[in-house]
Amino acid sequence: MPAPSLVGQKAAEERVARLMGFLNDDGIKIIGVWGMGGVGKTTLVKNLNNMLNSSLESFDIVIWVKVSKDLDLRTIQSHIVERLNLELNEGESTQQRANKLFRSLMMKKKCLLILDEVWEKIDLDIVGVPQGHDQANCKILLTTRSLAVCRQMMTNADFRVDVLNEEDAWNLFVQNAGDIAELEGIHTHARANARKCCGLPLAINAVGKSLRNRTVIELWKNALSQLQCSVPHYGSSEEEIYLPLKLSYNSLPRFFSSGNPLRKIPDGFFREVRALRFLNLSGTHITSLPPSLLQLGELHALLLRDCPLLDKLPPLGALEKLQVLDLSGTRLRELPKEMCKLKNLRELNLSRTHHLEDIEAGTLSGLSSLEALDMSSSAYKWDVKCKTEQKTSLYELLSLEQFSVLHRRLDTVGCLALDSTWLGRLKKFSIEISPRSCSSNYLPNQHDEKVVILRRVDLMEIRLEGLLRNAFALDLVTCGGIREVSEIAGRRSLCGYQA
Q1: In this predicted model, what pLDDT tens digit does every residue of 276-297 receive, in sequence order?
Q2: For a surface tag, which of 153, 329, 379, 478 has the fewest beta carbons within 10 Å of its beta carbon?
Q3: Residue 30 neighbours by CB distance under 10 Å
């Protein structure tokens, strides 16, 4: 079993020897190894497991089971069954499995069951592990963060794993960071970084590896500066390990890059990262977002660009600090009404939402800080009458004091002809007027300022004065009703045009 080496760590070697003493004591049946997270319990027991498996003098068989927080007795049974090379039928009940395991373990002269990461009491009788029988030669060793769990499991011997002393901590740090940590100019900073890991092997390994063979002194200084920052409150047993792990995390290469076909996010995935400010899931194949997303109260930007299978959003109103929301290229059919609660949202991108049909009235007008809306190449159809109780309309945008950028396609110029004076206050816009059947390849770019695009429109049948009065550029594509561009320019409504 892969495990970090304990060579050179005197304290760790002494711990292994002491645990071996417990295992060789016939009067001790259940041993509890406990200590705070990151202190090295699992590493210690893995090394012990490897030692015992390399020599069958102490035990006929050593069985390793990682329990973890979500306790599942059938999973524990499956791990033991696999190690014993037993056969089980899928339809067997937990009790039937337990009976088979009990008989098999009782036949062993001497066996050791190691239960790693135990968070709560495990009923060993239900699992099928012999205990309390004079003839039973099955010993149990468990690791846990809590002494209370040891007591609930009725341990005969409890062994606390504490942090490393300074000498062992430094030796472990050098193993991970490399001999460069001993060089003049770096040594002082390396020592300081090692001390900030507070003797926690998990933190020492993480920080050491993140600085391995780094020759730039500023990197060592910057790492120390990050470790000296104030630590958020996670409870006394977690605080000391938080920043070292954060530092190592910031040094990792990105694993899920944009475009990686991630398909599903577990429901509770974001529960433990509530301080997240920027989330980019663009280019993934997710079909929905997990409920835990709504617990990201500090989120400022949510990017879901080009998620072609995403067809539904959770109620986003809880993301009160959200400023940027990019839903372009998704399969959404409607926007959640709760979006109106996003009072700090400044940018909303709904471009290329070819399936968008419904935006309930009041949704956009509730976005009081909205500055920019991109709906280019969107299927959403604005009501020609402009005022409706069921669907949102352009009139909702008029009520937004900060609104200054709009990219939009319309079926008709009718809405704009009624009252186009509000276009004058926009700093930037691109408005395309074309039949719904007319496909458009136009996408706004950073060089466009105030653009009007007319496609397959009869220019003699519509009134363009109010619209063109505020435009800096005009794009005409397959339009009829005039013979020369000068007939439009003669209306004296353009500052400049392109065709």
Answers
A1: 889 999 888 999 999 999 999 9
A2: 478
A3: 21
Task: Give pTM, 2 decimals.
Answer: 0.48
213-224 pLDDT, tens digit per residue, is: 888 888 888 888
* Whether CATH 1.10.8 fits 166-250: yes
Residue range(s) in the chain whose domain bears CATH number 1.10.8: 166-250
As given in the structure block, the two tokens for residue 262 are 């991630």
Rounded-to-10 torsion of CA 70, 74, 79, 81? 170
What superfamily does domain 10-160 belong to in CATH? P-loop containing nucleotide triphosphate hydrolases (3.40.50.300)
